[in-house]
Amino acid sequence: MAYIDGFVIAVPTGNKQAFIQHAEQFDPLFMEYGALRCVECWGDDVPPGKQTDFKRAVQATDEEEVVFSWIEWPDKATRDAAMEKMMKDERMDPQANPMPFDGKRMIYGGFEPVVSFGSDGAAPAGA
Questions:
Q1: What does the pLDDT look like over 28-79, one tens digit per residue?
Q2: Using CA atoms, how far apart are residues 1 and 47, in angstroms rounded to an integer?
Q3: Cα separation of 38 and 36, whole Å?
Q4: What's the first-to-final CA gap in the chain, in angstroms?
């Protein structure tokens, strides 16, 4: 079963192109290590909530936008092996390749899908 790593970050609006370039540089590394798909989504309709919301979750300022991203892996074992290899990969060194956002405010986690509809052909119509 697939495994998903999800991320929510606040990126300075002026760094949008730098963020895209950063993703274009690093997402292929995830693919090299076995990821099936990497998706980077720039906030477009991120409304404020009454109790909590994406912006408050990452302490985004008025000069920042929320980015929602995920990496799809074939399974957790592939993801775990990839993470171990990437920690040793000099291309992932944040000193040599700094992130265009504050990584300390990033929210991330690994998730096991429990329901899936869509392009992979799972769950036929009417199911």
A1: 999 999 999 999 999 999 999 999 999 999 999 999 999 999 999 999 999 9
A2: 33
A3: 7
A4: 19
* C-alpha to C-alpha distance for 106 and 49, rounded to whole angstroms: 19
- Tokens encoding 104: 């300390």
Domains of the chain: 21-45+52-111 (3.30.70.100)
pTM of the complete model beyond 0.90? no
Measured in residues, the chain has a length of 127
* Contacts made by residues 78-87, CB under 8 angstroms, sequence distance 24+: 78/3, 78/34, 79/3, 79/5, 79/34, 79/35, 79/110, 81/33, 81/34, 82/30, 82/33, 82/34, 82/35, 85/33, 86/29, 86/30, 86/33
